[in-house]
From TrEMBL:
Residues 91-475 form the Solute-binding protein family domain. This is Peptide/nickel transport system substrate-binding protein. One of its GO terms (cellular component) is ATP-binding cassette (ABC) transporter complex. PANTHER family: ABC TRANSPORTER SUBSTRATE-BINDING PROTEIN, PERIPLASMIC BINDING COMPONENT OF ABC TRANSPORTER. Residues 1-22 form the signal peptide. Keywords: Signal. GO terms for biological process: peptide transport. It holds the Pfam family SBP_bac_5. One of its GO terms (molecular function) is peptide transmembrane transporter activity. SUPFAM superfamilies: Periplasmic binding protein-like II.
Amino acid sequence: MKRTSKLVGLVATAALALTACGGGGTSGTKGEAAGPGAKAVKGGTLQVLANAAFSHLDPARGFDGGVNNFYRLIYRTLTTQGAAPGADGTKIVPDLATDVGKPSDGGKTWTFTLKDGLFFETGAPITSADVKWGVERAWDPEIGIGSPYAKQLIEAPASYQGPYKSGDLPTIQTPDAKTIVFHLKKPFADFGSVVAQNTFTPVPKGQGAGNTLDSKPVASGPYKLADYKPGASLKLVRNDKWDKKTDDVRTANPDVFQWTFGLDPATIDERMIAGQGTDADAIAGTVQAASVARIQSPQLKQRTMTGINGCTTYMGLNTTKKPLDNVKVRQAINLAVNKQTVRDADGGSALAEIGTTIQPPTIAGRVDYDPYPSPDHKGDVDGARKLLTEAGFANGFTMTLDTRAQPKMQAMAVAIQQALEPLKITVKINTIDTATYYEVIGTTSQQHDAAITGWCPDWPSGATFLPPLFDGRNITPKGNTNLSQLNDPGVNAKIDEISKLTDVNAANKAYGELDKQIMELAPVVPLLYEKVLMLVGSNIGGAYLHDGFSGGIDLVSVGLKDASK
């Protein structure tokens, strides 16, 4: 579960942008001599220009679209997402395992078998004990701050604190060096997707305590760390213990990946537009709004890639605050918001599509519908006024809207403020420092009436979108993700009903219908599906946007068109 703020930091971090890609589309021509889709060759050094460094190199700690993309270069998991644009990229496929898992006991027990020929960069074989050790690290209170799914789903004593403090976790069994068995708290039909999470990375048994993997990861993928200056640079070189015959996902084209961190986003745009020297071999994050008009020439358009990033930017409405506890008031706000001006504040149509549903277009089973339509999405003030009058608030009210201390987010808040003015709704904008924003709005005692926020899936399933945002039993005093604080018995019951389905496709379809059920209650205002807009170097090939990694360029497939340059 990822909030979009993490991705904002990573856009700069790992050559990606804010949202995942509806079709993995590019404006370059695939398969020809020009454009980012042209064929990549083996060899050369691929440059990555970045604003910020990776959150963590330790797979139990990092948890955002950019670092997840990077991890696939140095780590492997039991399963992983495919390597392709569009829906093919979000299909779960075997990685270290021979298949996507065999359920038993009604879906409460899952068994995986490791492939032959798997080795760490040290030359030591990867065994089921190493996978188990890696997963157990997720329970460590200091280390296990990344993906929560292992802890949420695998049965474990309440007192368990990982392998370094508590030792063995008996609910993960390794009957032999090739077999690993997970015993879950309850059936989970999509556990084959869960084991693609970073916390299922093998770690040599007994290793990885403290901060050791943050400075020196132990590679199981095609690359290993050669040099790392935190905040400044990172270099990967080939891991000669990785065997392509065991890996149907990673192409591993470049000989070297070289990151440069700490660059100003405007400087990155200037360098990518100029494309001189080694910048011809570079990829970077999403283009800044101020640079969009400059990349419209035919020559630069050949080097651009665009698509939505798979996240939803929305305004959460706190259903415990009066008068937002009245459903008609929330519905009126949904009708009144002018989403065109919100999109303009975000950077316009080049950087965002208008959102109408909770789930973004990249989610499997998602239904495309608009529960609160208005002409050109500019808001239906008359319809909203009628609802407010029925609710007893014809004279409006005052509410406080939380937003981040970023120009774009503040501009979006002003757009909402102006859209609600004709309804006599006075919106007070409360600006919170970006570094503490989610900590503040996730603390229920500090949360105000509304907040502009966002959510990105961990894999493109409704299970990673709707329950964390709307299951009323998940409301917590701190770290709360249900910002609307919706605790509706009908929604809770439907989540339970869907969780029992053993067919993943049926579950995703049911979540698509649940999206509609939730939006009748109007606990949020879907605003935007933000876009990635990237400019790549003229010598980049094999590039496509990956729906599963917040719309970023899939690092396992990208490379150079000419490695001799």
